[in-house]
Each structure stands twice: as C-alpha cells, then as structure tokens.
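Suppose a colleague, Dr. K., hands you the sequence of a protein chain of 74 amino acids and asks what its three-dimensional shape might be. Before reaching for any lab equipment, you can write down a predicted structure in token form. Begin with the sequence itself:
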Amino acid sequence: MSKRKRILLMLARGGLSQADVAAVLHVSKRDVSAASRMIREHGLTVDDVEAMTDADADGLFVVPGRGESGAGYT
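The predicted structure, expressed as tokens, is then:
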C-alpha cells in the first residue's frame, strides 16, 4: 500500500491528529495536510479510500500542470 493511501486511510478513519499521523507513518506534516485537504475537497469516506488503488490515491496529490514533487531528482 502506498504511503499516500495509508495517510488517507488513517485520516479518514479519524481518532488521530495530523501530527500523530505524520509521526506514526514517518511522513511530513505537509503531506498529511494535503491528504486532509483531499478528503475534504472530494468528500472521501473510509470505504472510498479502501476501494482506491495506490495509483488512484497518489493521483489525488498531483496538481495539473505540475509534475510529481521531486520528479527531477534521483
């Protein structure tokens, strides 16, 4: 399961703060904040996130006209 999907799932399930989710998954607070925004903007439920593929979840974070963050780095 992709890290972004795990973030979405933890937020959709509730019970943890964004800071807690970031600490548990060892991700940035910025990524957790972006995931929280995606849940609100798209009205996602736990069932919606569970039904997503990793590619679907990752695709929520891509801004049209911009590449994937860090895409040019190796």
